[in-house]
């Protein structure tokens, strides 16, 4: 029974040390807690504007959008459908 107590204590110390030193440390002034940011990517320095497809309404990054006739589309197929609809 005594070994079980020391085993639990050892696990607690390893858990604390891992959380403290390997996961980026505890909370520091001006930082979010280590738990709230886990599994999330850091936001980029500059967010890219999103535009809406004139055909289906899906939002895509402006750099990936296809533009034609003053409208924006999410893909070449929707641009072609939009051109056919205008004819």
Question: What's the arrangement of secondary structure elements?
Answer:
Elements: H1 2-22, E1 50-52, E2 59-61, E3 66-68, E4 71-73, H2 76-86
Antiparallel strand pairs: 1-2, 3-4
Write down the overall mean pLDDT. Answer: 81
Radius of gyration: 26 Å
- Span from first to last CA? 84 Å
Number of strands: 4
Succession of helices and strands: HEEEEH
Low-confidence stretches: none
Q: What is the number of helices? A: 2
Instruction: Give the biggest beta sheet.
Output: 2 strands, antiparallel
Structural class: alpha+beta
Task: Characterize the structure shown.
The protein has 87 residues and is of the alpha+beta class. 37% of the residues lie in helices and 14% in strands. The protein is built from two helices and four strands; from the N terminus they run H-E-E-E-E-H. The protein has helices spanning 2-22, 76-86, and strands at residues 50-52, 59-61, 66-68, 71-73. It has a two-stranded antiparallel sheet. A two-stranded antiparallel sheet has the order 3-4. Strand 1 (50-52) and strand 2 form a beta hairpin. 7% of the residues are buried. The model has no long low-confidence stretch (mean pLDDT 81).
């Amino acid at each position: 029974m005594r070994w079980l107590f020391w085993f639990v204590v050892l696990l607690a110390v390893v858990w604390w040390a891992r959380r403290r030193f390997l996961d980026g440390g505890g909370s520091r002034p001006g930082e979010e807690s280590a738990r709230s940011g886990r599994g999330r990517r850091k936001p980029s320095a500059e967010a890219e504007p999103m535009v809406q497809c004139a055909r289906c309404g899906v939002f895509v990054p402006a750099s990936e959008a296809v533009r034609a006739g003053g409208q924006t589309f999410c893909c070449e197929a929707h641009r072609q459908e939009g051109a056919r609809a205008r004819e």
